[in-house]
Design brief:
The complex is a heterodimer of chains A (274) and B (177). Chain A is α+β, with helices and mostly antiparallel strands and 274 residues long. Chain A is built from nine helices and six strands, in the order H-H-H-H-H-H-H-H-E-E-E-E-E-E-H. Chain A has helices at residues 3-12, 18-30, 32-51, 59-69, 72-92, 100-111, 129-147, 159-167, 255-265; strands at 186-194, 197-206, 209-217, 227-232, 235-242, 245-251. In chain A, helix 1 (3-12) packs across helix 3 and helix 4 packs across helix 5. By secondary structure, chain B is an all-alpha fold. Chain B folds into two domains: 3-80, Rna Polymerase Sigma Factor, Chain: A (Orthogonal Bundle); 83-176, Arc Repressor Mutant, subunit A. In chain B, 72% of the residues lie in helices and 0% in strands. Chain B is built from eleven helices and no strands. In chain B, helix 2 packs across helix 3, helix 2 packs parallel to helix 4 and helix 8 (123-134) crosses helix 10. The chains are: A alpha+beta (274), B mainly alpha (177).
Amino acid sequence: MNDDDLWLDALLDDELDAAASVALQRRLAAEPALQRRFEERRALREAVRAQATRHAAPAALRAHLESMLAPAPARAEAAARGTRERTSWRLRGLPWATGLGGALVAGLCTLAVVDPAALGWHRGGALSAQQTAEASEAVSAHTRALLVDHPIEVASSDQHTVRPWLSARLNFVPPVVDLVAQGYPLIGARRDVLAGQTAAALVYRHGAHVISVFVRPAESTAPADAEATRVVRGFNVIERTRGGLAFCFVSDVNPHDLQTLADLVTPLAGTAHQ
Amino acid sequence: MQADGHARFAASVLPHLDAAYNLARWLVRDGHDAQDVVQDALVRALRHFDGFRGGDPRPWLLAIVRNAAFAWLGARRPNEVEVPDDELDAALAVGAPPADPESLAIRHAQRREIDEAIAALPIAFREALVLRELEELSYREIARITDVPIGTVMSRLSRARHLLAVALRPEASRSLA
Protein backbone atom coordinates (compact mmCIF):
# COMPACT_ATOMS: atom_id res chain seq x y z
CA MET A 1 0.00 0.00 0.00
CA ASN A 2 1.15 3.53 -0.57
CA ASP A 3 0.02 7.11 -0.17
CA ASP A 4 -1.98 6.98 -3.37
CA ASP A 5 -4.30 4.52 -1.67
CA LEU A 6 -5.09 7.07 1.03
CA TRP A 7 -6.18 9.53 -1.62
CA LEU A 8 -8.10 6.98 -3.66
CA ASP A 9 -9.93 5.92 -0.52
CA ALA A 10 -10.68 9.50 0.43
CA LEU A 11 -12.07 10.11 -3.04
CA LEU A 12 -14.25 7.00 -2.78
CA ASP A 13 -15.41 8.11 0.63
CA ASP A 14 -16.25 11.56 -0.66
CA GLU A 15 -13.91 13.12 1.87
CA LEU A 16 -11.77 15.21 -0.49
CA ASP A 17 -12.42 18.88 -0.95
CA ALA A 18 -13.26 20.10 -4.45
CA ALA A 19 -9.72 21.11 -5.40
CA ALA A 20 -8.09 17.87 -4.24
CA SER A 21 -10.84 15.88 -5.91
CA VAL A 22 -10.34 17.61 -9.25
CA ALA A 23 -6.57 17.16 -9.04
CA LEU A 24 -6.95 13.45 -8.34
CA GLN A 25 -9.53 12.98 -11.10
CA ARG A 26 -7.04 14.55 -13.49
CA ARG A 27 -4.35 12.10 -12.40
CA LEU A 28 -6.76 9.20 -12.78
CA ALA A 29 -7.51 10.23 -16.34
CA ALA A 30 -3.80 10.37 -17.16
CA GLU A 31 -2.60 7.24 -15.32
CA PRO A 32 -4.26 3.95 -16.32
CA ALA A 33 -2.50 2.07 -13.52
CA LEU A 34 -3.90 4.45 -10.93
CA GLN A 35 -7.33 4.24 -12.54
CA ARG A 36 -7.20 0.44 -12.35
CA ARG A 37 -6.24 0.63 -8.71
CA PHE A 38 -9.15 2.95 -8.09
CA GLU A 39 -11.54 0.50 -9.74
CA GLU A 40 -10.18 -2.29 -7.56
CA ARG A 41 -10.76 -0.21 -4.47
CA ARG A 42 -14.27 0.59 -5.61
CA ALA A 43 -15.05 -3.08 -6.32
CA LEU A 44 -13.78 -4.05 -2.88
CA ARG A 45 -15.85 -1.38 -1.23
CA GLU A 46 -18.97 -2.43 -3.13
CA ALA A 47 -18.43 -6.06 -2.23
CA VAL A 48 -18.02 -5.21 1.45
CA ARG A 49 -21.02 -2.91 1.55
CA ALA A 50 -23.22 -5.32 -0.35
CA GLN A 51 -22.22 -8.49 1.43
CA ALA A 52 -20.71 -7.95 4.87
CA THR A 53 -23.16 -8.92 7.57
CA ARG A 54 -24.93 -6.15 9.39
CA HIS A 55 -25.78 -7.76 12.68
CA ALA A 56 -29.24 -6.77 13.85
CA ALA A 57 -29.87 -6.54 17.57
CA PRO A 58 -31.49 -9.79 18.75
CA ALA A 59 -35.22 -9.49 19.34
CA ALA A 60 -34.83 -10.47 22.98
CA LEU A 61 -32.33 -7.69 23.61
CA ARG A 62 -34.52 -5.13 21.87
CA ALA A 63 -37.69 -6.24 23.63
CA HIS A 64 -35.97 -6.13 26.98
CA LEU A 65 -34.54 -2.65 26.47
CA GLU A 66 -37.83 -1.35 25.09
CA SER A 67 -39.80 -2.66 28.01
CA MET A 68 -37.29 -1.16 30.40
CA LEU A 69 -37.34 2.25 28.80
CA ALA A 70 -40.86 2.52 27.42
CA PRO A 71 -43.39 4.90 28.92
CA ALA A 72 -45.98 3.13 31.08
CA PRO A 73 -48.73 2.25 28.52
CA ALA A 74 -46.31 0.89 25.94
CA ARG A 75 -44.42 -1.06 28.54
CA ALA A 76 -47.10 -3.71 28.91
CA GLU A 77 -47.13 -4.29 25.17
CA ALA A 78 -43.35 -4.51 24.94
CA ALA A 79 -43.27 -6.80 27.94
CA ALA A 80 -45.86 -9.06 26.34
CA ARG A 81 -43.75 -9.31 23.23
CA GLY A 82 -40.67 -10.01 25.30
CA THR A 83 -42.24 -12.86 27.27
CA ARG A 84 -41.31 -15.49 24.73
CA GLU A 85 -37.65 -14.66 24.95
CA ARG A 86 -37.55 -14.02 28.66
CA THR A 87 -36.55 -17.59 29.50
CA SER A 88 -33.43 -17.45 27.39
CA TRP A 89 -32.31 -14.39 29.29
CA ARG A 90 -32.70 -16.26 32.56
CA LEU A 91 -30.83 -19.25 31.20
CA ARG A 92 -27.98 -17.08 30.13
CA GLY A 93 -27.88 -15.61 33.59
CA LEU A 94 -27.23 -12.13 32.28
CA PRO A 95 -26.84 -9.64 35.09
CA TRP A 96 -29.88 -7.64 34.01
CA ALA A 97 -31.13 -7.23 37.53
CA THR A 98 -27.90 -5.74 38.78
CA GLY A 99 -26.66 -4.07 35.62
CA LEU A 100 -28.87 -2.26 33.20
CA GLY A 101 -31.97 -3.68 34.84
CA GLY A 102 -31.09 -2.13 38.15
CA ALA A 103 -30.20 1.19 36.64
CA LEU A 104 -33.34 1.36 34.54
CA VAL A 105 -35.77 -0.07 37.07
CA ALA A 106 -34.72 2.75 39.34
CA GLY A 107 -36.12 5.13 36.78
CA LEU A 108 -39.38 3.33 36.13
CA CYS A 109 -41.28 4.66 39.12
CA THR A 110 -40.75 8.15 37.78
CA LEU A 111 -41.91 7.07 34.32
CA ALA A 112 -45.31 6.12 35.67
CA VAL A 113 -46.07 9.74 36.46
CA VAL A 114 -44.42 11.20 33.39
CA ASP A 115 -45.98 14.29 31.90
CA PRO A 116 -47.49 13.50 28.48
CA ALA A 117 -45.59 16.49 27.10
CA ALA A 118 -42.40 14.59 27.76
CA LEU A 119 -43.50 11.73 25.56
CA GLY A 120 -43.37 13.78 22.43
CA TRP A 121 -46.85 15.28 22.38
CA HIS A 122 -46.89 18.68 20.82
CA ARG A 123 -49.41 21.31 19.85
CA GLY A 124 -52.85 20.25 18.78
CA GLY A 125 -53.44 18.30 21.96
CA ALA A 126 -53.47 14.57 22.37
CA LEU A 127 -54.30 12.51 19.33
CA SER A 128 -56.72 9.71 19.98
CA ALA A 129 -55.68 6.26 21.12
CA GLN A 130 -56.84 5.10 17.71
CA GLN A 131 -54.03 7.08 16.16
CA THR A 132 -51.51 5.42 18.43
CA ALA A 133 -52.68 2.15 16.95
CA GLU A 134 -52.25 3.65 13.51
CA ALA A 135 -48.65 4.60 14.27
CA SER A 136 -48.05 0.98 15.16
CA GLU A 137 -49.77 -0.10 11.95
CA ALA A 138 -47.63 2.32 9.95
CA VAL A 139 -44.46 0.86 11.46
CA SER A 140 -45.67 -2.63 10.53
CA ALA A 141 -46.36 -1.50 6.97
CA HIS A 142 -42.92 0.11 6.78
CA THR A 143 -41.05 -2.95 8.07
CA ARG A 144 -43.13 -5.33 5.96
CA ALA A 145 -42.19 -3.38 2.86
CA LEU A 146 -38.52 -3.47 3.84
CA LEU A 147 -38.61 -7.19 4.61
CA VAL A 148 -39.89 -8.22 1.23
CA ASP A 149 -37.32 -5.86 -0.23
CA HIS A 150 -39.94 -4.41 -2.50
CA PRO A 151 -41.06 -1.19 -0.91
CA ILE A 152 -42.31 0.40 -4.10
CA GLU A 153 -44.84 -0.26 -6.85
CA VAL A 154 -43.81 2.65 -9.02
CA ALA A 155 -40.06 3.15 -8.92
CA SER A 156 -39.21 6.65 -9.97
CA SER A 157 -37.54 9.74 -8.66
CA ASP A 158 -39.64 11.78 -11.05
CA GLN A 159 -42.51 13.40 -9.21
CA HIS A 160 -44.30 13.85 -12.52
CA THR A 161 -44.40 10.07 -12.92
CA VAL A 162 -45.27 9.22 -9.35
CA ARG A 163 -48.02 11.78 -8.81
CA PRO A 164 -50.22 10.74 -11.79
CA TRP A 165 -49.67 7.09 -10.88
CA LEU A 166 -51.02 7.74 -7.40
CA SER A 167 -53.81 10.10 -8.49
CA ALA A 168 -55.12 7.45 -10.85
CA ARG A 169 -55.41 5.00 -7.99
CA LEU A 170 -56.49 7.16 -5.08
CA ASN A 171 -59.40 9.49 -4.42
CA PHE A 172 -57.13 12.20 -3.06
CA VAL A 173 -53.91 13.85 -4.17
CA PRO A 174 -50.87 13.52 -1.92
CA PRO A 175 -48.03 16.01 -2.32
CA VAL A 176 -45.25 14.32 -4.28
CA VAL A 177 -41.90 16.04 -4.48
CA ASP A 178 -38.36 14.85 -5.07
CA LEU A 179 -36.07 16.27 -2.40
CA VAL A 180 -32.75 15.02 -3.68
CA ALA A 181 -31.22 18.48 -3.34
CA GLN A 182 -32.12 18.45 0.35
CA GLY A 183 -30.67 14.96 0.79
CA TYR A 184 -33.95 13.03 0.52
CA PRO A 185 -34.20 11.46 -2.94
CA LEU A 186 -37.63 10.09 -3.77
CA ILE A 187 -37.30 6.46 -4.80
CA GLY A 188 -40.91 5.66 -5.52
CA ALA A 189 -44.36 5.00 -4.15
CA ARG A 190 -46.87 2.30 -3.46
CA ARG A 191 -50.35 1.99 -2.08
CA ASP A 192 -50.82 0.69 1.41
CA VAL A 193 -53.69 0.28 3.81
CA LEU A 194 -53.71 2.19 7.06
CA ALA A 195 -56.62 2.10 9.49
CA GLY A 196 -58.78 0.44 6.87
CA GLN A 197 -58.15 3.29 4.43
CA THR A 198 -56.09 3.22 1.28
CA ALA A 199 -53.07 5.41 1.83
CA ALA A 200 -50.32 6.62 -0.46
CA ALA A 201 -46.91 5.43 0.71
CA LEU A 202 -44.09 7.58 -0.64
CA VAL A 203 -40.64 6.11 -0.20
CA TYR A 204 -37.64 8.35 0.33
CA ARG A 205 -34.04 7.52 1.00
CA HIS A 206 -31.78 9.40 3.36
CA GLY A 207 -28.23 8.04 3.50
CA ALA A 208 -28.61 4.33 4.18
CA HIS A 209 -32.10 4.76 5.58
CA VAL A 210 -35.46 4.22 3.94
CA ILE A 211 -38.27 6.52 4.98
CA SER A 212 -41.94 5.69 4.41
CA VAL A 213 -44.35 8.61 4.21
CA PHE A 214 -47.97 7.51 4.54
CA VAL A 215 -50.57 10.01 3.39
CA ARG A 216 -54.35 9.70 3.56
CA PRO A 217 -57.31 12.02 3.98
CA ALA A 218 -57.60 13.21 7.58
CA GLU A 219 -60.65 12.20 9.59
CA SER A 220 -63.13 15.04 9.70
CA THR A 221 -62.96 14.85 13.49
CA ALA A 222 -59.17 15.10 13.62
CA PRO A 223 -57.87 18.35 15.09
CA ALA A 224 -56.25 20.56 12.48
CA ASP A 225 -52.46 20.76 12.75
CA ALA A 226 -52.27 17.90 15.22
CA GLU A 227 -48.82 16.44 15.67
CA ALA A 228 -47.22 13.61 17.59
CA THR A 229 -43.78 12.07 17.54
CA ARG A 230 -43.01 8.72 19.08
CA VAL A 231 -40.80 5.67 18.96
CA VAL A 232 -42.58 2.47 17.98
CA ARG A 233 -40.56 -0.76 18.10
CA GLY A 234 -37.36 1.17 17.53
CA PHE A 235 -38.65 3.23 14.64
CA ASN A 236 -39.23 6.95 14.80
CA VAL A 237 -42.73 7.99 13.86
CA ILE A 238 -44.01 11.49 13.21
CA GLU A 239 -47.75 11.97 12.70
CA ARG A 240 -49.03 15.26 11.43
CA THR A 241 -52.33 16.60 10.11
CA ARG A 242 -52.03 19.37 7.52
CA GLY A 243 -54.29 20.69 4.78
CA GLY A 244 -56.89 17.96 5.25
CA LEU A 245 -54.30 15.19 4.97
CA ALA A 246 -52.98 12.89 7.67
CA PHE A 247 -49.24 12.24 7.32
CA CYS A 248 -47.25 9.54 9.01
CA PHE A 249 -43.45 9.47 8.65
CA VAL A 250 -41.73 6.22 9.62
CA SER A 251 -38.03 5.36 9.58
CA ASP A 252 -35.04 4.22 11.57
CA VAL A 253 -33.35 7.47 10.61
CA ASN A 254 -32.68 9.78 13.55
CA PRO A 255 -35.58 11.94 14.80
CA HIS A 256 -33.98 15.17 13.63
CA ASP A 257 -33.61 14.04 10.01
CA LEU A 258 -37.14 12.63 10.01
CA GLN A 259 -38.42 15.96 11.32
CA THR A 260 -36.55 17.74 8.53
CA LEU A 261 -38.34 15.67 5.90
CA ALA A 262 -41.69 16.21 7.61
CA ASP A 263 -41.08 19.95 7.57
CA LEU A 264 -40.31 19.81 3.85
CA VAL A 265 -43.28 17.68 2.83
CA THR A 266 -46.25 18.67 4.97
CA PRO A 267 -46.41 22.38 3.98
CA LEU A 268 -47.20 21.13 0.45
CA ALA A 269 -50.46 19.50 1.55
CA GLY A 270 -53.41 20.87 -0.34
CA THR A 271 -51.21 22.60 -2.89
CA ALA A 272 -50.78 19.56 -5.13
CA HIS A 273 -51.95 20.03 -8.69
CA GLN A 274 -54.79 17.85 -9.82
CA MET B 1 -32.58 11.40 36.29
CA GLN B 2 -35.95 12.88 35.47
CA ALA B 3 -38.70 10.92 33.72
CA ASP B 4 -38.61 13.08 30.63
CA GLY B 5 -34.90 12.33 30.52
CA HIS B 6 -35.72 8.63 30.23
CA ALA B 7 -38.25 9.23 27.48
CA ARG B 8 -35.73 11.35 25.63
CA PHE B 9 -33.08 8.69 26.17
CA ALA B 10 -35.32 5.95 24.76
CA ALA B 11 -36.28 8.08 21.78
CA SER B 12 -32.65 8.94 21.05
CA VAL B 13 -30.99 5.62 21.64
CA LEU B 14 -33.38 2.78 20.79
CA PRO B 15 -33.58 3.60 17.07
CA HIS B 16 -29.83 2.99 16.94
CA LEU B 17 -29.83 -0.31 18.74
CA ASP B 18 -29.03 -2.26 15.58
CA ALA B 19 -26.03 -0.02 14.90
CA ALA B 20 -24.89 -0.38 18.50
CA TYR B 21 -25.20 -4.16 18.40
CA ASN B 22 -23.56 -4.40 14.98
CA LEU B 23 -20.49 -2.49 16.18
CA ALA B 24 -20.27 -4.49 19.41
CA ARG B 25 -20.70 -7.74 17.50
CA TRP B 26 -17.89 -6.90 15.07
CA LEU B 27 -15.56 -5.76 17.85
CA VAL B 28 -15.98 -8.71 20.23
CA ARG B 29 -16.83 -11.20 17.45
CA ASP B 30 -19.41 -13.10 19.46
CA GLY B 31 -23.17 -12.65 19.65
CA HIS B 32 -23.65 -13.32 23.36
CA ASP B 33 -20.68 -11.19 24.35
CA ALA B 34 -21.96 -8.41 22.12
CA GLN B 35 -25.25 -8.39 24.03
CA ASP B 36 -23.33 -7.97 27.27
CA VAL B 37 -21.35 -5.12 25.74
CA VAL B 38 -24.49 -3.35 24.49
CA GLN B 39 -25.99 -3.75 27.93
CA ASP B 40 -22.90 -2.22 29.55
CA ALA B 41 -22.91 0.55 26.98
CA LEU B 42 -26.55 1.47 27.60
CA VAL B 43 -25.96 1.65 31.34
CA ARG B 44 -23.10 4.05 30.66
CA ALA B 45 -25.11 5.95 28.08
CA LEU B 46 -28.03 6.40 30.44
CA ARG B 47 -25.68 7.60 33.17
CA HIS B 48 -24.08 10.16 30.87
CA PHE B 49 -27.16 11.16 28.90
CA ASP B 50 -27.33 14.47 30.74
CA GLY B 51 -24.03 15.30 29.07
CA PHE B 52 -25.47 14.65 25.62
CA ARG B 53 -26.40 18.02 24.17
CA GLY B 54 -28.49 17.13 21.16
CA GLY B 55 -27.17 16.53 17.69
CA ASP B 56 -26.98 13.10 16.12
CA PRO B 57 -27.21 10.49 18.89
CA ARG B 58 -25.80 7.70 16.74
CA PRO B 59 -22.08 8.64 16.81
CA TRP B 60 -22.47 9.51 20.48
CA LEU B 61 -23.93 6.09 21.24
CA LEU B 62 -21.41 4.27 19.04
CA ALA B 63 -18.53 5.97 20.88
CA ILE B 64 -19.91 4.61 24.15
CA VAL B 65 -20.42 1.15 22.66
CA ARG B 66 -16.89 1.21 21.30
CA ASN B 67 -15.43 2.14 24.68
CA ALA B 68 -17.56 -0.49 26.41
CA ALA B 69 -16.33 -3.10 23.93
CA PHE B 70 -12.69 -2.17 24.52
CA ALA B 71 -13.20 -2.21 28.28
CA TRP B 72 -14.91 -5.60 28.01
CA LEU B 73 -12.13 -7.02 25.84
CA GLY B 74 -9.44 -5.43 28.00
CA ALA B 75 -10.78 -7.30 31.02
CA ARG B 76 -11.31 -10.64 29.31
CA ARG B 77 -9.17 -10.88 26.17
CA PRO B 78 -6.50 -8.21 26.63
CA ASN B 79 -4.33 -9.62 23.84
CA GLU B 80 -6.98 -8.53 21.33
CA VAL B 81 -6.86 -4.85 22.23
CA GLU B 82 -3.18 -4.44 23.02
CA VAL B 83 -1.84 -4.72 19.52
CA PRO B 84 1.54 -2.99 19.24
CA ASP B 85 2.11 -0.84 16.18
CA ASP B 86 4.91 -3.01 14.82
CA GLU B 87 2.52 -5.93 14.82
CA LEU B 88 0.07 -3.91 12.78
CA ASP B 89 2.88 -3.18 10.36
CA ALA B 90 3.71 -6.87 10.20
CA ALA B 91 0.08 -7.58 9.35
CA LEU B 92 0.58 -5.36 6.33
CA ALA B 93 3.62 -7.23 5.11
CA VAL B 94 1.50 -10.13 3.86
CA GLY B 95 1.54 -10.27 0.11
CA ALA B 96 2.00 -7.61 -2.48
CA PRO B 97 -0.87 -5.29 -3.27
CA PRO B 98 -3.28 -6.66 -5.85
CA ALA B 99 -2.13 -5.16 -9.12
CA ASP B 100 -3.89 -7.02 -11.90
CA PRO B 101 -7.43 -6.51 -13.17
CA GLU B 102 -8.33 -10.06 -12.21
CA SER B 103 -8.50 -8.95 -8.61
CA LEU B 104 -11.83 -7.45 -9.58
CA ALA B 105 -12.99 -10.98 -8.91
CA ILE B 106 -13.37 -9.94 -5.29
CA ARG B 107 -16.70 -8.62 -6.50
CA HIS B 108 -17.83 -12.23 -6.51
CA ALA B 109 -16.51 -13.12 -3.09
CA GLN B 110 -19.06 -14.81 -0.90
CA ARG B 111 -20.58 -13.19 2.16
CA ARG B 112 -18.87 -15.70 4.42
CA GLU B 113 -15.43 -14.97 3.00
CA ILE B 114 -15.93 -11.25 3.39
CA ASP B 115 -17.17 -11.63 6.96
CA GLU B 116 -14.21 -13.82 7.82
CA ALA B 117 -11.75 -11.41 6.24
CA ILE B 118 -13.19 -8.51 8.23
CA ALA B 119 -13.23 -10.53 11.45
CA ALA B 120 -9.55 -11.36 10.93
CA LEU B 121 -8.49 -7.70 10.75
CA PRO B 122 -6.61 -6.23 13.74
CA ILE B 123 -9.18 -4.45 15.87
CA ALA B 124 -8.00 -0.90 15.09
CA PHE B 125 -8.47 -1.53 11.37
CA ARG B 126 -11.66 -3.51 11.88
CA GLU B 127 -13.42 -0.78 13.84
CA ALA B 128 -12.50 1.88 11.28
CA LEU B 129 -13.79 -0.30 8.45
CA VAL B 130 -17.04 -1.26 10.17
CA LEU B 131 -17.78 2.35 11.12
CA ARG B 132 -17.08 3.52 7.58
CA GLU B 133 -18.56 0.78 5.38
CA LEU B 134 -21.38 -0.57 7.51
CA GLU B 135 -22.35 2.46 9.57
CA GLU B 136 -21.39 4.98 6.89
CA LEU B 137 -19.89 7.50 9.28
CA SER B 138 -17.60 10.29 8.11
CA TYR B 139 -13.86 10.36 8.81
CA ARG B 140 -14.49 13.11 11.33
CA GLU B 141 -17.11 11.07 13.18
CA ILE B 142 -14.90 7.98 13.17
CA ALA B 143 -12.00 10.05 14.49
CA ARG B 144 -14.15 11.27 17.36
CA ILE B 145 -15.51 7.81 18.16
CA THR B 146 -12.15 6.05 18.10
CA ASP B 147 -10.35 9.01 19.68
CA VAL B 148 -7.59 9.34 17.08
CA PRO B 149 -6.69 12.06 14.56
CA ILE B 150 -8.42 12.05 11.17
CA GLY B 151 -5.12 11.20 9.47
CA THR B 152 -4.94 8.03 11.56
CA VAL B 153 -8.49 7.15 10.54
CA MET B 154 -7.50 7.56 6.91
CA SER B 155 -4.45 5.34 7.18
CA ARG B 156 -6.25 2.69 9.25
CA LEU B 157 -9.09 2.58 6.76
CA SER B 158 -6.71 2.35 3.87
CA ARG B 159 -4.75 -0.42 5.57
CA ALA B 160 -7.94 -2.26 6.42
CA ARG B 161 -9.00 -2.18 2.78
CA HIS B 162 -5.57 -3.26 1.67
CA LEU B 163 -5.66 -6.28 3.98
CA LEU B 164 -9.15 -7.17 2.79
CA ALA B 165 -8.07 -6.92 -0.84
CA VAL B 166 -5.18 -9.27 -0.12
CA ALA B 167 -7.37 -11.73 1.79
CA LEU B 168 -10.08 -11.75 -0.87
CA ARG B 169 -7.77 -11.90 -3.86
CA PRO B 170 -8.67 -14.94 -5.94
CA GLU B 171 -5.25 -16.56 -5.65
CA ALA B 172 -5.12 -15.98 -1.88
CA SER B 173 -7.32 -18.98 -1.10
CA ARG B 174 -5.17 -21.21 -3.26
CA SER B 175 -1.79 -20.11 -1.93
CA LEU B 176 -2.97 -20.36 1.67
CA ALA B 177 -4.59 -23.73 1.19
